[in-house]
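Support case: iron/sulfur cluster complex. Customer-provided input:
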Amino acid sequence: MKPSDIGPTAHRIRERAKTLDRRVRLMEVCGTHTHAIGRGGLRSLLPENVELVSGPGCPVCVTAQRDIERMILLADLPVTVCTFGDMIRVPGLHSTLEQRRSAGADVRVVYSPLNALTLAMDNPDRDVAFLSVGFETTTPGVAAVLLQARALELKNFSVYTANKLVVPAMEAVLAGGSLLDGFLTPGHVSVILGIEAYENLAQQYRIPCVAAGFDPLDVIEAVAQLLDCLVENRCGSFVQYTRAVRPGGNARAREVMFSVFEPCDAEWRGLGTIPGSGLGLRAGFEAFDAAKRYALPEVDAPDPPGCRCGEVLKGYIQAPQCPLFGKVCTPRHPLGPCMVSSEGACAARYKYG
Ligand code: SF4
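Agent response - structure generated as follows:
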């Protein structure tokens, strides 16, 4: 799609919305889509009866408070903790990883799990743990690193796993009663899964899903495709992001991922425990499990008082409907992860309005 196509596409959306003559709620599952929507000012192009709501696709945002607390406990041990950047500012009950770093903990921001593995290889006298938080997009890379660590018989490398699967969360949102008319599914996850992965869900709930790229032009085109489906009464899994997504996805990446990880029950912020929605290490990789290696205790950690991230992540409310939004909770002083993360719905609405 070219920038000059945006006018005709917006016109197509308005015409379809008129035909439907009812309120239409579409969920962008992924936080990167949320930011593309803000960056492109796409809400201003939509008719009043078409609403975009955020979903549970920002990995930092959906990480349970219990996992955040355990990561902070890990940082207080004589271990070098490696993490992607957003995680260090997520508030725990009493501290953040960033604050622990200021107090002397060795917390480092890395750009890839391979950076953490290299650090462990270069420093055999130092224990290194990688905080593995992410969906099917990043988990194959973590799996590849763990296969390498096992082949090298590294004794000083481990991973704290909080990896999650997208489709069970989409199903939990629908089963929980969110009234949605369609999903914009994440382009990068769909590169790995393929569009067939959403087909059962689409048929079971009679809902269209469109895998979208991350440019605002991609997103507006995908919204138009969803409205086409609704007007024509079609459900199923479709793709807008044809330059990257293949129907069967990336089988090799899935093979690597599932050779190291297996589905397990996982706790999500806002969604509770969803059966089979997480990825735990398979037998044979226990030695690399940071939670076991350092005997991290189970902790009971409530969400920050007043924070409504859970409702934002289920599409129940828009971020500005949280009473704390922009007042006590801002990107400089975030109360919840949705205001911290570069993929967070609250951060997107604060930045773009
Ligand atoms: S505005 Fe802040 S407190 Fe409110 S839901 Fe978002 S992150 Fe939580």
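The chain has two domains: 1-304, 309-352.

Case will auto-close in a few days if no follow-up is received.
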